[in-house]
Design goal:
alpha/beta; binds alpha-D-glucopyranose; about 475 residues
């Protein structure tokens, strides 16, 4: 047993099961205070260097998540059985044997896929970056991998590399591109990790002997070589690596081997889901918006438009454009980014309800983007809601309020009005002197009457809102 495998095996059973899933509400992904054997860029760079590296990301505020892969073929159903869980987990949830699952590749020929159209959709929606699943938990690579033949070029009739096409289109459109990579979970590679579900093996999470093997071999012979491919195959990408579900397999020693590779790309941004106690650059709350954000930490709320990341033909529970825009504004007002997901189908087509909502969001941002891009968190706070008193030892629950939110820039305070106040907008404890007030959607930016005394501000408003979803009141201030 060589030293690489030996060293890794030694630290295998440290972390709890929480890391088997994402960063769900109430969960925190622990990062260790103990110095890492291999310091990551976050451990080495100065605050100024960190700010410079994160600058474009903080300016962006809004990105597109793309969950696309072989799981789009069964689209949530297999042998007449439908999964009630997220579509990309169908292999695990329905205990599909490895050989059966790999069969889907022979029918995967997404001739309807257009990297140009997807990038144009992101651009029109007002999104500034894209993160696409290059390999999800099922182990299928959505790129031309020389490391493992279970990929879209070698194993399907499609024979093209969609990541290469996306990288070229993103570069032309000035959109940043990142790759999601499931570094620990891999349900088709021997030794890959698997979150334990149902009656699967309690130790390994496996349900098919073909999955058994050495995790260290999997990491050394598949995961790390593929991460190297993703970081070097494409001239202009990636700007982000988005890790997921580290499970207990990603010990500090194993994660350090990945960090050695990441450290060769000093501009790269990576999240808090690598494992091994590495905090990464961003917190990644999933399917929820933290009550008060993560003060002092960059964070990104990732969310589905319906209830699944990967395409499910029968999931039609699409959120309204109003909800999606209110989420974007709420997240920005708490200093975070919004990574909103699309799930293309097996032809590579984006479901129409997702396209419609993204275009509608883009329309609002075309008028009001100034109050989102590069904007910082609110100078107020209580407008977001309050904690309801808790029974017994229960955690106090946050009850959001939805009248308005605020975002901030050097000499501007933006008030995003969801509910249109009668006659005037009133707010107290304004920490700046307002010099002019107007509505952003009013092309003439006509000055509105206002009074301000000891931090108490009242702005006279026209009878009707200019936008039913959110009308932005701009307070020029010093
Ligand atoms: C969770 C899910 C995974 C999904 C990710 C997105 O970790 O397990 O399927 O890709 O969230 O945040």
């Amino acid at each position: 047993m060589n030293s690489f495998v030996l060293r890794l095996a030694l630290g295998a059973c440290v972390l709890s099961s929480v890391s088997a899933y994402g960063q769900l509400e109430g969960h925190t992904i622990e990062s260790s205070a103990t110095p890492h054997s291999v310091p990551a860029i976050q451990d080495k760079e100065t605050p100024a260097q960190h700010d410079a590296r994160m600058a474009w990301w903080r300016e962006a505020r809004f990105g597109m998540f793309i969950h696309w892969g072989l799981y789009a073929v069964p689209a949530g159903e297999w042998h007449g059985q439908r999964t009630t869980h997220i579509g990309e987990w169908i292999m695990n949830d329905l205990s599909i044997p490895v050989a059966d699952y790999k069969q889907f590749a022979t029918n995967f020929n997404p001739t309807g896929f257009s990297a140009h159209d997807i990038v144009a959709l992101a651009k029109d929606a007002g999104m500034k970056y894209i993160v696409i699943t290059s390999k999800h938990h099922d182990g299928f690579a959505m790129f031309d991998s020389k490391t493992d033949p279970f990929n879209i070029v070698a194993a399907t009739p499609f024979k093209k590399d969609p990541l290469r096409e996306l990288a070229e289109e993103c570069h032309k459109a000035g959109i940043h591109l990142g790759f999601y990579y499931s570094q620990a979970q891999d349900w088709t590679a021997p030794g890959g990790a698997a979150a334990v579900r149902g009656n699967h093996n309690k130790e390994t999470g496996h349900w098919d002997a073909a999955q058994d093997g050495s995790f260290d071999d999997y990491l050394k012979n598949k995961a790390i070589p593929q991460i190297k491919e993703l970081l070097s195959n494409y001239k202009t990408a990636p700007d982000i690596i988005w890790f997921d579900t580290p499970t207990s397999k990603m010990t500090p020693e194993r994660a350090a081997e990945v960090v050695k590779v990441l450290n060769q790309y000093p501009k790269l941004i990576w999240n808090n889901r690598l494992g091994g106690g590495y905090k990464g650059d961003t917190e990644t709350p999933e399917q929820y918006i933290p009550a008060q954000g993560y003060p002092g930490r960059d964070w990104e709320s990732c969310m589905t438009i319906n209830d699944t990341w990967g395409y499910k033909s029968f999931d039609t529970n699409f959120k309204s454009t109003e909800t999606l825009l209110h989420n974007l504004i709420d997240i920005t007002s708490k200093g975070g980014n919004y990574l909103l997901n699309i799930g293309p189908d097996a032809q590579g087509k984006v479901p129409e309800p997702e396209v419609e909502r993204l275009h509608a969001m883009g329309k609002w941002l075309a008028v009001n983007g100034e109050a989102i891009y590069g904007a910082k968190a609110t100078l107020f706070g209580p407008e977001a809601g309050s904690f309801a008193p808790a029974e017994g030892n229960a955690k106090p629950k946050f009850v959001p309020a939805w009248e308005w939110r605020s975002t901030t820039k050097a000499n501007r305070i933006y008030i995003h009005l969801f509910a249109w106040p009668k006659g005037s907008f009133h707010v107290e404890k304004v920490p700046r002197t307002v010099t002019k007030a107007y509505l952003l959607a009013d092309p003439g930016h006509k000055a509105l009457k206002f009074t301000q005394k000891e931090g108490v501000l009242d702005v006279s408003l026209p009878e009707k809102a200019l936008d039913p979803i959110a009308t932005v009141l701009v307070l020029e201030s010093k």
